[in-house]
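A reminder before we start the practical. When you read a complex entry, don't treat the lines as separate problems. The point of joint prediction is that each chain is placed relative to the others, so the output describes one connected object in space. Small molecules and nucleic acid strands, if listed, are placed in the same frame. In the example below there are two entries. Take a minute to note the order of the lines before looking further.
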Amino acid sequence: MSSNTGDTGRGQRLYKKARTLIPGGTQLLSKRPEMFLPEQWPAYYSRAKGAEVWDLDGRRYLDTTHFGVGACVLGFADEDVDQAVLGAIQSGTMSTLNAPEEVELAELLIELHPWADMARFARCGGEVMAIAVRIARAATGRDKVAFCGYHGWQDWYLAANLATDALGNHLLSGLEPAGVPRGLANTMFPFMYNDIEQFRRVVETHGKELAAIVMEPCRAEGPAPGFLEEIRETASRLGAVLIFDEVTTGFRVLTGGIHRKFGVDPDLAAFAKGMGNGYPMAAVIGKRAVMEAAQSTFISSTYWTERVGPVAALATIRKHRDKNVAEHLIQVGRTVKAGWKRAAEQTGLTLHIDGIDPLAHFDIQCEHKAAVVTLFIQSMLDRGFLASAQLYASYAHQPAHLEQYLGAVTESFDVVARALEEGTVEKLLRGPVKHSGFQRLA
Amino acid sequence: MSSNTGDTGRGQRLYKKARTLIPGGTQLLSKRPEMFLPEQWPAYYSRAKGAEVWDLDGRRYLDTTHFGVGACVLGFADEDVDQAVLGAIQSGTMSTLNAPEEVELAELLIELHPWADMARFARCGGEVMAIAVRIARAATGRDKVAFCGYHGWQDWYLAANLATDALGNHLLSGLEPAGVPRGLANTMFPFMYNDIEQFRRVVETHGKELAAIVMEPCRAEGPAPGFLEEIRETASRLGAVLIFDEVTTGFRVLTGGIHRKFGVDPDLAAFAKGMGNGYPMAAVIGKRAVMEAAQSTFISSTYWTERVGPVAALATIRKHRDKNVAEHLIQVGRTVKAGWKRAAEQTGLTLHIDGIDPLAHFDIQCEHKAAVVTLFIQSMLDRGFLASAQLYASYAHQPAHLEQYLGAVTESFDVVARALEEGTVEKLLRGPVKHSGFQRLA
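Here is the predicted structure of the whole assembly.
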């Protein structure tokens, strides 16, 4: 692994330019260099393969952070998926006729989720969640939505913040609803994961007006006993559509939605990220009675008909199943979590570790957390790792990678522990402190 | 060209299955087999190359219809675009870092549209129009939108049909707003293209409450003298954002938005379809003061960060410019329009021909139009052509193709003319009459 000399390089220079051309600099909050290491993060890649990434200066890193925001469960540039995509390109990615692979993909998703009967496809996660909510509203003739957690950028969701800062306790505090029509106020009602009392209060107030209950079946922690079951029963009783957002949780602990592990079936489930392994693809699957409502409304887009998406998804999902990729992801997560714990003990840091195994996360118990994590990221980058306080496991993460990674983590935890002890955290930073959430760029 | 024997084949059998697995059968209304030739249309493709398409039975057709709904201006599976995409695949389509090509693409789009300063990207046309409207609403702090024409499936647009059937006179009559929250009623105010009086009435009533004026700069006809200019002046006076939807009109008569031909600049312009030549890609470009409002709200999605989209767009746009593809498209359209006229005169049909040259359309002046067009499509399919009452020109359409096509058109117009004379239109159809717009599938 090449070591980073601290030269900010071509990536930062290009990013400086990007900020004059692209509001926010990137297309995704979680890929803003400021979310990692302002003024030092390599920002752009020239090549990505397996678990390795090369920046614009040709420096090589091991990716031990959110790994393409969870989009590449099999690893970057997976050969089997790419081979299938090359076939799709050779035979033409678009035509006036339809791609037969979308029917095959619908069948495969339904085979993996026997409660579901039908599927519709899109290309992005935020987009497919908007389709799911549209279908639920069309099926019920109602507008209101009870929800828990983060579900993307679209109007239906950000409307939650129109009245109050309802999203404040959810994933990204302070998501601005600027530009979301005020007529959507009072359509969104939040409840916290595993807070069944709060859920009951939402139901008490809005009960029969709820079109949908939207949630991830699992967040940093799994469901408390009876939590998902009561929500399922309540949805059925109210005639509301239960939507599981599996955009992040899907294809982690099994091939398909994590809800299968909990034995509770939704009415609709949405997938994106992991299902395409880096090629844009998204799906909503559901029970026939609900899905048929898609026909009573208008949900249609030209680029949902191209061939690469379904072909990539078929190859990704089949490999995921055939190679038992989920088991690998779980093992990687467990090894990493145990390694973090050990490294913290050795260096005297106190960690809180959470997340399902393949989406592991740690929190250093200290003051000025953002500065401390920034120092950790800087120390890891110096050692040739793209790192942060989370690691999304990939099939490309091999034992040797994890050994190197955990060695560097121990060294970096040591840097952090000593800096905390000596009060030198800010002094050791060669650039500004990382951003922690939604923040306007000058 | 192989002739179609009338056997409905594998495509129709697969489509029958698709309808049990996918509500509506396809992901796009305009690709439903019922929109062309119910029970006979080949429905799916195995291969597409240049202007040719092969169905699941290996039958070859020349594509002389909407040509991938206008997504493939260069032709199917264009070698230069595909070569660039293969490079992107080899170097990895996704990473935790960003794809540098998106900065290059922002620069190129701004170079082509000197009034614009910044760009954001998405992957689908409906999606990018929702981003444009969000930015306009965020920039103005207002919710209402004056609009003309069709702009996709999302809530902000379908809201137009909540109160009345406002979309009735626009592109797709009867678009159902089922599932669109009622709180969005009275946000959308339609005006007809080139009806400046109607536009003035909308402005009189809603003037300073308008966040945006959304329209295609050109529809079947071009702008009447002063029409776009008055809209531009009014938008500036009201402080409303003028958004040109160039998803369909872009990259037809020049490299970039058709508005450049009319000398009227919007505040934002949106592109998709033609810019990716069959790979999902979409962009909104705009003036800095408006685009910066994207930073006051939350617009972010994982698959907007992959590499194939920008790489395909760069290759498509550069080839479009270098080869003067627009000139070719215009010539194809003119040849086709002249050929239609000649064929109609020879066979005694009366046609109304419209559309900009690269997006040519004809309307047979007769009763029972849907049945008559169905007979035309059937006759063309028998002769080895995917055809309808429109032809979207492609760089892959060569003079020899057009000669074959216009020969088949003359024969098929003759079939239609004789059937009209003899009252045998319905009798000659081997399947049901085509659908003409939004229609529920049983």
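Discuss with your neighbour: The CA atoms of residues 105 and 314 of chain A lie 6 Å apart. What might explain this?
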